[in-house]
Amino acid sequence: MAWNTPGSDNSGGSNGRTPRRRPGGRGLDALIDPLRGLFGGGAGGGGSILRWVGIVIALWLAFNCFVLVTEQERGVVLRFGQFSRVLQPGPHFKAPWPIERVTKVNATQSNAYSDTVPVFTRDANMVNVEINVQYRIGDPQMYLFGSRDADRVLKEAAQSAVREQVGRSDLDTVLNARAELTTTVRQRLQESLQAYRTGLVVTELNLPNARPPDEVKDAFDEVQRAASDKTTQINQAQAYAKQVVPEARGQAARVRAEAEGYKTSSIARAEGDASRFSQMVEQYKAAPDVTRKRLWLDTVQDVLSENRTIVGGDGRNVIYVPMGERRAPAPAPNSPLLTPDLLAPPTSVEPADTARPTRSPRSSGRDEVTR
After folding, report:
1. Domain shared by 129 and 193, yes or no
2. Which residues span the domain enclosing 332?
3. Strand partners of residue 90
4. Final residue of a domain: which of 165, 183, 211?
5. Cα Rg of the chain, angstroms
């Protein structure tokens, strides 16, 4: 009980002395008395209910006018039901309800949408295309008030974009080359979301799989295997061509070089033979008999130098003349030998009646056995 409360006994006990107050007590009472009076503890008796109503209203206004927006959120302020402004992350103050109302939207959360859509391609083939869309809220005002149901609009727009772009492509592109198709579908979907005022932003779009319906899956698998075999055969053929063509070109270059060399040598040999023949004609005109004999001797020397000479037991030289690839048998002991006087008939400028007798070849003194 307070010391200054009316009706209290200030006798301080049996000794009748007034209790001593602590220093500074008057200042503390000065702060507590207004609160005591506000809650009905003052001299006036019980507090009025209007005071409690005022306290509640004051607290309600204090909490209702203060708004805290987190980092992931954006606050959309409506003033009498009409859009006023967007609150960024942080503490804010607004007019109390029903003047202003705040709707918080998670603008950084990534949402996902996945579905499988049956689509007809340009070449009249049906294929089931999987769609995977990642999106977030880019414009809170548009998301809340631009369209009736932004998420549903995104689903329908995604299916429409896929059907449109796949319908312009053939089956091989949809099954095996979807990179460019995916980019086009994403751009078309974002344009549709902006046109429908959804306030959504597509962060990622994928077409992870495209497969034919189950009823014709076996036939499509056969087609895919055939296309794979075709690619393998083409790669093998190209590799073989890269290996064979350089070898063929090198061989062709070698043959051309040999032909050029043979051509050059043949032309030079022919020119030399023609020049030699022209000079020989001049010499023949000057001395026919000497030139004729010299030609005969040169020819016989060339022929005999290419054949083996066999010396018989009687001292005569036998010339071995092979007939083709077969070797001629050795001459019989009593058979006539092929001697130089038979191979080289006498050629002389003298008349036949005055020709000198042919001298028999001189024995070499060696005795060899013909084998």
Report:
1. yes
2. 301-349
3. 69
4. 211
5. 62
| 30 within a domain of the structure (yes/no) | no
Answer yes or no: is 15 within a domain: no
pTM (two decimals): 0.47
177 and 126 within one domain: yes
Q: Are residues 241 and 201 in the same domain?
A: no
One domain for residues 120 and 201: yes
How large is the greatest C-alpha to C-alpha distance in the chain, in angstroms?
Answer: 204
Q: pLDDT tens digits for the chain (371 residues)? A: 444 444 444 444 444 444 444 444 455 555 555 555 555 554 444 457 877 777 777 777 777 788 888 888 888 888 888 888 888 888 887 878 788 888 888 888 889 999 999 998 998 888 899 999 999 999 888 888 888 889 999 999 999 999 999 999 988 888 888 888 999 999 999 999 999 999 999 999 999 988 888 777 788 778 778 988 999 999 999 999 888 988 899 999 999 999 999 999 999 999 998 998 888 888 888 888 888 888 888 888 888 777 776 666 566 656 565 555 444 444 444 444 444 444 444 444 444 344 444 444 444 444 433 33
Domain count, the chain: 4
Chain position carrying tokens 């001593």: 20
